[in-house]
Design a protein that fits this description.
Number of strands: 5
Strand order of the largest sheet: 3-4-2-1-5
Radius of gyration: 14 Å
Number of helices: 3
Number of domains: 1
Helix content: 25-40%
Length: about 100
């Protein structure tokens, strides 16, 4: 069974999911809220889905496709999770659109 890491600090949590998994279960980036993050490295494809809404969307779509809930492993990050330092998903999209002249 596939396992995903849920990174959390004292205030919030984010499910780490590779873009290929989002595509696989039919979650479009445009469906992800402004409270989720994306790894800033080029071509990493790593998304950190906000636990209250976006992670739930992914888990529901995964369950719909595969008939099981994915295994989630909790990973504590202390007082301030590294995810908070990453750009938000839609901030990257806007930067890309500006760079493309959209």
């Amino acid at each position: 069974m596939t396992s995903f890491d849920l990174f959390f600090d004292g205030g919030h949590g984010w499910l780490g999911v590779h873009k290929s998994w989002l595509d696989d279960v039919g979650v479009r980036v445009s469906e992800i809220s402004e409270y989720s993050y994306r790894h800033p490295g080029e071509n990493t494809g790593l998304y950190y889905l906000e636990e209250d809404c976006d992670a739930d969307l992914f888990i529901r779509r995964y369950r719909d496709k595969y008939g099981v809930t994915p295994q989630i492993k909790a990973v504590g990050c202390g007082d301030q999770c590294f995810v908070r330092a990453m750009p938000r998903v839609h901030a990257i999209q806007l930067d890309w659109q500006v760079a493309q002249g959209a």
